[in-house]
Amino acid sequence: MSIPLPSEIPVERRDLRKTGIHPDHWYPLLRSRRLKPGRAAGVTFAGEPIVLVRTATGRLYALEDRCAHRQVPLHAGVVNGECIQCCYHGWTYDHAGHCVNVPYVGKSESVPRGVRSYPCREAYGLIYVFPGRPERAQSAPFPDVPAWRDRRYKTRYLDHEVECHYSFLHENLMDMNHQFLHRRIMASIRTGFLGMREGEDWVEVDYTFARQGRQPVGEKFMLGRRPDPNAVRPQDLMTVRTQYPHQTLKFWTAGSADPALDLWITYVPIDREQRRNHTYALMNIRRPGVPGLMELLWPFIVWFTNGIFAEDKRVVEMEQDAFDAQGADWNQEIFPVIQQVRALLLRKGVPL
Q1: What is the band of 6 on the pLDDT scale with cuts at 50, 70, 90?
Q2: CA-angle at 64, arms to 61 and 65, nearest 5°
Q3: How much is the CA Rg of the chain, to the nearest whole Å?
Q4: Average pLDDT, the chain
Q5: Which pLDDT band holds residue 209 (cuts at 50, 70, 90)?
Q6: Can you give the pLDDT at residue 129?
Q7: With 70 as the cut, is the pLDDT of residue 210 above it?
Q8: Cα 312 from Cα 172, distance rounded (Å)
Q9: Domains of the chain
């Protein structure tokens, strides 16, 4: 009896925790400020090494991080003019990955084919790479984060590794029923599920919240003064959306026209098994009306959000530990929103 290939296994029988993220999308792989002119940096996407190069003139490009000669990482080499030169024998590659010079070989002799290049863009203070089929890069939607450009908002960057499969983080953000986890930071609040919508590549859910205790200081600093409820916004509203493969979260206080919090977040697999990811996020927080007040409150906002993220990180890593110990997904999920998110991630992902 032959064993079916992963791609031949029906979606409904696949294990989500063994499903890879689809490469045909734009993913941030590095903060822009970490790549200075005339330097190179090594990053990875799902186990594939990629070198990001910024030349002295500011040109940015991405190549396979392996010299075609001895497979030595190119990021250990030297950016020379508009090219990158391997640290071992000096083989030189241009922005398209072509090997343009082997120092000890005459110009009349042929040079090797070179290495793979990746479509690369810079936006929102992040360097994005398209690791999938290059011909699809132009038509693939690029993340749109208008709040990042809005001067009424101040942006906090999240940039850290989490030791779990990306699907655990998608579920964590979409499921606001886990507020009990944050009881020491958020005090006691009750989540109200308002409804869910979905499409071919997205799932969206609305929540409201009722506080059962005193509003914590960190949250008060973060949200500022609340306007009076009105007919358009009679209650607090949080909308969380998985727009494959990224996520957004927007929070409006009752009566407000613009969100107090506008979050864009994504999880980039690091290793080939995709049980580790690099989380990048743009956390856009609406500035209060008083000039300079946001800068004064910023340390409190950082402290408050760091506490929330630390608790989320700890619990999803415990979920990964349980999966590793059991060897399979034993979760008994009953919340329809998460059932639909899991179906979306399975449908759009690729089997490992």
Answers
A1: very low
A2: 100
A3: 23
A4: 90
A5: confident
A6: 98
A7: yes
A8: 7
A9: 26-136 (2.102.10.10), 146-351 (3.90.380.10)
CA distance 133 to 340: 27
pLDDT for residue 20 is more than 60: yes
CA atoms within 13 A on the CB side of 142: 16
- What would the mean pLDDT of 62-81 be, rounded to a whole number? 97
| Residue range 273-328, pLDDT digits in tens | 999 999 999 999 999 888 899 999 999 999 999 999 999 999 999 999 999 999 98
SS (H, E, C) the chain: CCCCCHHHCCHHHCCHHHEECCCCCCEEEEEHHHCCCCEEEEEEECCEEEEEEECCCCCEEEEECCCCCCCCCHHHCEEECCEEECCCCCCEECCCCCEEECCCCCCCCCCCCCCCEECEEEECCEEEECCCCHHHCCCCCCCCCHHHHCCCEEEEEEEEEECCCHHHHHHHHHCHHHHHHHHHHHCCEEEEEEEEEECCCEEEEEEEEEECCCCCHHHHHHHCCCCCCCCCCCCCEEEEEEECCEEEEEEECCCCCCCCEEEEEEEEECCCCCCCEEEEEEEEEECCCCCCHHHHHHHHHHHHHHHHHHHHHHHHHHHHHHHHHHCCCCCCCCCHHHHHHHHHHHHHCEEC
Backbone angles phi, psi at 171, to 5 degrees: -65, -40
Q: Are 146 and 140 in contact (CB under 8 A)?
A: no
How far apart, in Å, do the first and last CA atoms of the chain sit?
Answer: 22
Q: At what angle do helices 166-174 and 293-326 cross, to 10 degrees?
A: 120
pLDDT given at position 223: 55
Residues 161, 166, 168, 171, Cα dihedral to 10°: 120
